[in-house]
Write a structure and sequence with these properties.
It is a multi-pass membrane protein. This protein is mostly helical. The chain contains 15 helices and no strands.
């Protein structure tokens, strides 16, 4: 486990709202209709995520240094958008963690969200996150195996039976908002590529990593997230879709429904074990999100104003992001799915800019020619950009006309 690289860590960070919520909900509400879209969005976002590993392995510097080389305005744009993304994403994963915690502690979701943020900050500031990170790899493995077992049992139970057809067409105009939300965090927000870049730099401090090794590690992690997204969708499609039940907007009720998905096929006696594993996974994601965004913002500020690194500034950024994230949670008053949908839609709309920055970097002349994107990756990148821009325009039109 200790030998797993940045690509695997990125995969672990991605198994959060995009998988547990978006993919599972897609299967529960629309059956198998969106399975191909989950795979397509992972494929079309691939060049923009891969930039983090490829650029850093080729140059020995982070993506943020690359943005600065392109011009100070590019780094300022990335950092400014990251401020918004950091607050929104922290709020989303923190409320999801608090929702899971309602299954064990009879407090309001707002109070639990506050406790989750305080605990996360203490872990990070006191330096105990390395211990949590080691445990997290095991917890993530348990959740993955549990989900695979649950899907296998659900498939066995339905073997030989007629597959239920969806009563709801996923491609109705009214579902545009959900489709965009699901794609926003699938497999994760694109700015996570900068985290991967920073993690790779840290790894290079202790061992040499060739561009080929970095790319293999990234590809393994990325493929894992894509496959697991389909697995979570399958769980929703096989268990909940056939029942006709839909997920509740309420955070506490959603957590109860999600855990029940597993216990229906694995036995009621596994309910609390599954709930604890899911909670620990999402709690780890919350800590990772606060840490990843804060470190990226800290590095962006450091490069923009040309100041040396300052650990107190990093702690201040973590505290500020957490407080503003809590404010967003209080605004949504325990409505988990509307908050996550808002965060994911925001992620999708900013994805266009982050994707464009990464693509521009991977074809820039200061990158060694052998490490620049070739014709195949350029074509896939252009298709991905056209796809993202087209869906964003459709969403803007849909949003302007839905009322």
């Amino acid at each position: 486990m200790s030998g797993l690289g940045p690509g695997i860590l990125m995969a672990a960070a991605a198994i959060g709202a995009s998988h547990l919520v978006a993919a599972t909900r897609a299967g529960a509400e629309f059956g198998w209709q969106l399975a191909w879209l989950v795979l397509a969005v992972n494929l079309l976002k691939y060049p923009f995520f891969a930039a983090g590993a490829r650029y850093t392995a080729a140059t020995g510097e982070s993506l943020l240094h690359g943005y600065l080389r392109q011009g100070k305005g590019y780094l300022a744009l990335f950092t400014g958008l990251n401020v918004i993304a950091a607050i929104a994403s922290t709020a989303g994963v923190c409320m999801l963690t608090a929702a899971m915690l309602t299954q064990f502690i009879p407090l309001s979701i707002d109070t639990l969200a506050f406790l989750v943020l305080v605990s996360s900050l203490l872990l990070l500031i006191l330096g105990h996150y390395k211990w949590l990170d080691g445990v997290t790899k095991v917890i993530m493995l348990i959740l993955t195996l549990t989900t695979l077992i649950a899907v296998s049992l659900a498939l066995t139970n339905q073997w030989g039976q007629a597959t239920p057809t969806s009563a709801v067409d996923a491609w109705q105009w009214a579902n545009v908002g959900f489709l965009v939300a699901m794609m926003g965090w699938m497999p994760a927000p694109i700015e996570v590529s900068a985290w991967n870049s920073l993690w790779l730099l840290e790894k290079q401090k202790t061992q040499s990593v060739s561009p080929e090794q970095a790319l293999f590690d990234f590809n393994l992690g990325y493929l894992t997230t894509a496959i697991l997204a389909v697995v979570f969708l399958a769980l929703g499609a096989l268990v909940m879709h056939s029942s006709g039940e839909q997920f509740s907007d309420s955070g506490a009720q959603f957590a109860n429904q999600l855990i029940r998905l597993y216990s229906q096929v694995m036995g009621e006696e596994t309910r609390y074990l599954i709930g604890m594993v899911a909670f620990l996974c999402i709690f780890s994601t919350t800590v990772t999100v606060i840490d990843g965004y804060s470190r990226t913002l800290n590095m962006g500020w450091q490069l923009l104003v040309k100041q040396p690194d300052n650990p107190y500034r990093l702690n201040l950024i973590m505290l500020t992001v957490s407080v503003l994230g809590l404010g967003l949670i209080l605004f949504f008053k325990g409505a988990l799915l509307p908050l996550l949908e808002f965060v994911m839609i925001l992620a999708f709309m900013t994805t266009i800019i982050f994707a464009g920055l990464n693509f521009k970097l991977m074809i820039s002349t200061h990158l060694p020619e052998a490490q620049r994107y070739g014709s195949q990756m350029r074509i896939l990148s252009w298709i991905g950009l056209i796809y993202l821009i087209s869906f964003a325009l459709v969403f803007v039109y849909w949003y302007s006309t839905k009322n």
